[in-house]
Design brief:
Elements: H1 4-14, E1 18-22, E2 28-31, E3 34-37, H2 45-53, H3 58-65, E4 70-75, E5 81-89, E6 92-100, H4 115-119, E7 125-130, H5 137-151, E8 155-160, E9 173-178, H6 186-193, E10 200-203, H7 209-220, E11 224-229, H8 234-244, H9 250-260, E12 261-271, E13 278-286, H10 289-296, H11 303-309, H12 318-327, H13 333-339
Parallel strand pairs: 7-11, 7-12, 8-9, 8-10, 10-11
Antiparallel strand pairs: 1-2, 1-6, 2-3, 4-5, 5-6, 12-13
């Protein structure tokens, strides 16, 4: 058994989402959003490098020795599956292990709004799931792919970095390909997928101009493309897509978004009232003619107002989702306050008054 497995086993027993190993500090666990050290000595540089080398293939070890950060999936001896990132920092090496549950959650398991299942019924276009790192984007996408797999006869090609949830083909055929193992770049993966008779293409991260451009091409040519961006809201996602591509493609990109973008789902993970779990809160934008016109006329700052008036279409702002979840006692109001855009509407629910703005007392 690899020595790292002992830390991973402890983390899983505690119910953590991530295990962090770094030189100069003890191992740490991410518990419901908070980082907590375990009772262990500070890790030394040579010690941690030897732990990590035990789980690296020869190819990955050579890449890491060559100075490259590495991403890969790892299955511990007791069957736990992890997404791993190994890196170097000022004081030495570090590694983050993200736990990947064996059971792929359903949209119902995640308590997702019904609109997400309906979005999966699209046969072409682009659906983006966005949010900062660690907000559960991969889990939501896995649940959406799982829904398609159970309800439609499709050829689903998933391009990931690395492969996280392992899908078993049901009504659909699912082909999972991994960056660095099966394909050099996401853009190359999309290009190859277009020759493999796909119905659905999942792009793990649309991180560069070529990937975004190829994903747009796939969506325009009759395929459903699911992808992620590290953006925090529908309007910012649209702006990012437009700004990411060269200036001469600006009008073409805007035209694609107005016609080909079907929805943007942005999520945060908020603590539950008992502090023992987290629940997703979603901002949801569904493309309409009004929003398409805003994109074409550079009025994306007006998109949030459309989310407020489009609830009959399944749309909602993040603030609305947070308030509804607070009223239903599904999330902690103090944690929700931190994620709110217009915090004034949340102040009456806050129990930790230190979070509230302090009034200045006149002299």
């Amino acid at each position: 058994m690899s020595r790292i497995d002992a830390f991973l086993k402890l983390g899983l027993a505690q119910g953590c989402s991530d295990v962090h190993l770094a030189v100069g500090v003890p191992p740490m666990l991410r518990m419901n959003g908070d980082l907590m050290p375990i009772k262990f000595r500070e890790l030394g540089g040579a010690e941690l490098e030897s732990y990590i080398s035990e789980i690296l293939s020869k190819k990955l070890n050579n890449q890491f020795i060559g100075g490259t950060d590495i991403d890969f999936s790892y299955v511990s001896e007791d069957g736990g599956r992890f997404r791993v990132n190994v890196f170097r920092k000022a004081t030495g090496v570090g590694a983050t292990f993200r736990f990947i549950p064996q059971k792929i959650p359903t949209l119902d398991d995640l308590q997702m709004p019904g609109i997400l299942a309906r979005l999966c019924d699209h046969h072409q276009g682009m659906i983006l799931v966005t949010g900062s790192t660690g907000t559960g984007k991969s889990t939501t996408l896995a649940a959406m792919v799982n829904h398609i797999n159970q309800t439609r006869n499709q050829n689903i090609i998933s391009l990931e970095d690395p492969i996280e949830f392992v899908h078993q083909s049901q009504r659909s055929q699912i082909i999972q390909r991994e960056l660095g193992t099966h394909l050099p770049t996401f853009a190359d993966g999309i290009r190859a997928a277009l020759r493999e008779d796909p119905d659905v293409i999942l792009v793990g991260e649309m991180r560069d101009v070529e990937t975004i451009s190829m994903a747009m091409t796939a969506a325009e040519t009759g395929h459903l493309v699911l992808g992620t961006l590290h953006t925090t809201g529908a309007a910012k996602t649209i702006d990012r897509m437009i700004d990411a591509l060269p200036g001469e493609m600006r009008e073409q990109t805007k035209s694609f978004l107005g016609q080909g973008l079907k929805a943007v789902v942005t999520q945060n993970l908020i603590k539950t009232p008992d502090g023992k779990g987290r629940r997703a809160a979603l901002e949801i934008m569904v493309m309409t003619r009004a929003i398409a016109k805003m994109i074409m006329t550079d009025q994306t700052h007006q998109v949030p107002a459309q989310l407020q008036t489009g609830r009959d279409l399944g749309m909602q702002t993040m603030d609305y989702a947070l308030l509804e979840a607070i009223k239903a006692k599904q999330i902690d109001p103090d944690d929700a306050y931190r994620f709110a855009t217009d915090k004034s509407g949340f102040q009456k629910f806050v129990t930790d008054t230190s979070l509230l703005p302090q009034l200045e007392v006149g002299g």
